[in-house]
Amino acid sequence: MNSVKIGICGLGTVGSGAVNVLGRNADEINARAGCEIVISQIGARRDNPACDLGDISVSRDIFDVAENPEIDILVELIGGTTVAKELVLKAIANGKHVVTANKALIAEFGNEIFAAATEKGVTVAYEAAVAGGIPIIKALREGLSANHIEWLAGIINGTGNFILTEMRDKGRDFADVLKEAQELGYAEADPTFDVEGIDAAHKLVILASLAFGMPLQFDKVFTEGISKIAPQDVTYAQELGYRIKHLGIASRSSENGDTSNGGIALRVHPTLIPEKRLIANVDGVMNAVLVNGDAVGPTLYYGPGAGAEPTASSVIADVVDLARTLTAAPEHRVPHLGFQPDKLNDLDMLPISEVETAYYLRLSALDAPGVLSKVTQILSDAKISVEAVIQKEPGAGEDHVPLIILTDRVIEKSLDSAVTQIQQMDSIEGEITKIRVEALG
User: Which of 54, 69, 374, 403 could make an S-S bridge to 363, C-beta 3.0–4.6 Å?
Assistant: First the structure.
């Protein structure tokens, strides 16, 4: 068999996992690739005791790998967007194919990187950038290629899912569970990317680019985190038959059911989902992506979204694909996103104010006659239908009660206008909690 030589840059969790899996499963991997895959060089500032490098050449300067003329495929696993971008562009300039697990790099600079790869006739593969070991990129590019994708929704950050699961199952509050997530290594010391939805937004924009054949537009994603979700919201959602999940949702707007020419909405936010849906039962640190195509209907992809070997599984799958296709014509080597550089702005990106969905509202209302009637009248005047109402009894010595309202689907700007009016009522105390609701089916 011919050999394909790869260089791995970064020897952290995923890098060491890739070395271990390539070594342990070498015979099977090589048989599937049709050639021998050899780790020819590693670029890393320090060794990792989690893997045995044997006689593999190691350079402390990762750019040595990009400059090495023997390397066919550079595997970028260093993370970040500054040095990683420079490294990837250097490798492309030197005619090397690239495999990366770097979602931030692809989401923010993918258009520039793909353009450079097209010019040099090389491939950039990034299966591991979204949902760890779940082969969702290949599913969208290959398995669902016959479909007009109408929408997709995903639990694509394990940290946020772990926190919401613990809040639901054990009645704990957000801050308490976040601290445990940090102790367990699920969340970073600065958890902003995970709990405020930035990590999920990076992944969502990558999925949307493939699902809808559009350029990567990270700046167009509406992003809202889970830090304001209270334990009572989780409890009330269950009473209504829903579960709260932090979802990334990409959807086409439709008119009379036709989504062929609709605008695109990209949004990450807490969402109420009917508890009977499969994705509502994805718990802990697991990930899942639900994709709805016109031909196949809804399909669900579930598995570990992070970790050394699950992510390494996706990295190596890309290496195997590249090894199989190194002799393909250059114009077929770059992921086709279905757009030309001069048509980047053709798609209408919907702001969150134009998105239609149902809503969960939690108010602290004065326990007095006529308050609920006035609230529902404001909603009615705005042509917002109420699907369900829960009104709790006041606690000892309290004169305000929790009032929970579930609405029908409505354009967000209409709902916000009504909420503003309700907020101004003297009988309403504090801020009104608003969480979007999706049926996903």
Answer: 403
Residues of the chain with pLDDT under 70: 1, 254-262, 327-347
Q: Which residue has the tokens 């066919």?
A: 72
Angle at 129 between CA 59 and CA 344, to 5 degrees: 115
Q: Give Cα 127 to chain centroid, integer Å.
A: 13
Measured on CA atoms in the order 252, 255, 260, 263, is the torsion positive or negative? negative
Of the candidates 406, 409, 407, 415, the one whose C-alpha atom is nearest the C-alpha of residue 353 is: 415
Distances in whole angstroms, Cα of residue 136 to Cα of each of 130, 252, 316, 338? 7, 19, 15, 18
Whether the Cβ atoms of residue 57 and residue 22 lie closer than 8 Å to each other:
no
Where along the chain do its domains lie?
3-133+309-343, 141-304, 355-437
How large is the angle between the packed helices 13-24 and 26-33, nearest 10 degrees? 80
Residue type, 164: L
Domain 3-133+309-343 has CATH 3.40.50.11420: no
- State the helix-helix crossing angle for 103-120 and 198-212, rounded to 10 degrees: 40
Class in CATH terms, 141-304: alpha beta
The residues carrying an active-site annotation are 203
* DSSP 3-state of 295: coil
Rounded CA gap, 19 and 12, in Å?
11
| Contact (Cβ atoms closer than 8 angstroms) between residue 313 and residue 160 | no
CATH fourth-level superfamily of 355-437: ACT domain (3.30.70.260)
pTM reported for the whole predicted model: 0.90
What per-residue confidence (pLDDT) applies to 330? 52
The CA angle 301-305-311, to the nearest 5 degrees, is: 110
Beta bridge partner(s), residue 428:
365
